[in-house]
Every structure is written in C-alpha cells, then in structure tokens.
From TrEMBL:
The keyword ATP-binding applies. One of its GO terms (molecular function) is ATP binding. Coiled coil: none annotated. The keyword Transport does not apply. This is tRNA threonylcarbamoyladenosine biosynthesis protein TsaE. It comes from the Bacteria. It comes from uncultured Anaerotruncus sp. InterPro entries: P-loop_NTPase, T6A_TsaE. Its main location: cytoplasm.
C-alpha cells in the first residue's frame, strides 16, 4: 500500500499516469471516495498514461464510458446508483470482465461483493479544496514500482 498527496487535479492525473504504465489487460481499479474527490481526474490520467486520447467525463448517467486506444481499452463505470445485484447485472458489468480491457470503477464500495479478487484499490480523500490523499493498494508489481 502506498499513499500519495496531490495538490491539484493535474498532479492527480500525473499519479494516475504512472499507475497506468503498470497496468495489464484485465486489471480492475476499484475507486473509493466521495463526490468531488478526483475519481474522474484520476481516470483522465489513466487514459493519458495508456495512450488513449479521450474526453473523459463521469459516467454518472450512462453507467459506463468506453475509451479505446491503440493498445488498450478502458471501461469507466459509475456504480453510485447500483443498489442491488439485479441493478449490477443490468449494467452488463459481468460481461465487461471478459472483454480484456481495464476497468475503472467509481463507487466500487457499492459492488464490493461482486468484485473479483486482486482488484487495485484507489482511495481518494479530501485534505482541502485542491489537496487529496490518495492511497493505492495492489499487488507486488505496483508496490515496487510506485515507491
């Protein structure tokens, strides 16, 4: 587990870009953090780090946004309104697990029981208006590289 402090959305995106360089198809990033904590900024950074040129926005109403690049696809989920297994099933979430892309899931705590083992956990906490405490917990490849 590694903890970082960022002082702007740009720094949050830069941190995510470093993480993106370590990701592989099938990885799942499970975000935890309230509204306005920087989850979408983090996803913007993931896209940049994966070489995906995309206009990243929160998938609040669409439930999932798909960002395709030459070498990677990122599926960005918002599980804020998911209240049951039936709701989750209707999003098509389980199908996306088999697509070979990288999943970034906002409000992952709402589907904690459905997440496969080995997810990368990214917790974003507010320190002040622009400063965030970001904790990343993952496997050994992340622990060594994000030192």
């Amino acid at each position: 587990m590694k903890t970082f402090i960022t002082h702007s959305p740009q720094e949050t995106e830069e941190l995510a870009g470093k993480l993106a360089a370590l990701l592989s198809p099938g990885d799942i990033i499970a975000y935890e953090g309230g509204m306005g904590m920087g989850k979408t900024a983090f996803t913007r950074g993931l896209c940049r780090g994966l070489g995906i040129a995309a206009d990243v926005s929160s998938p609040t109403f669409s439930l999932v946004n798909e960002y395709r690049g030459e070498n990677a696809t990122l599926y960005h989920f918002d599980m804020f309104r998911v209240e049951s297994f039936s709701d989750l099933y209707s999003t098509g979430f389980f199908d996306y697990l088999d697509y070979g892309g990288i999943l970034a899931i906002e409000w992952s705590e709402n589907i904690a029981g459905a997440l496969p083992e080995g997810c990368i956990q990214v917790s974003l906490e507010r320190v002040d208006d622009t400063t965030r405490k970001i904790t990343i917990k993952g496997d050994e490849r992340l622990e060594a590289a994000l030192a």
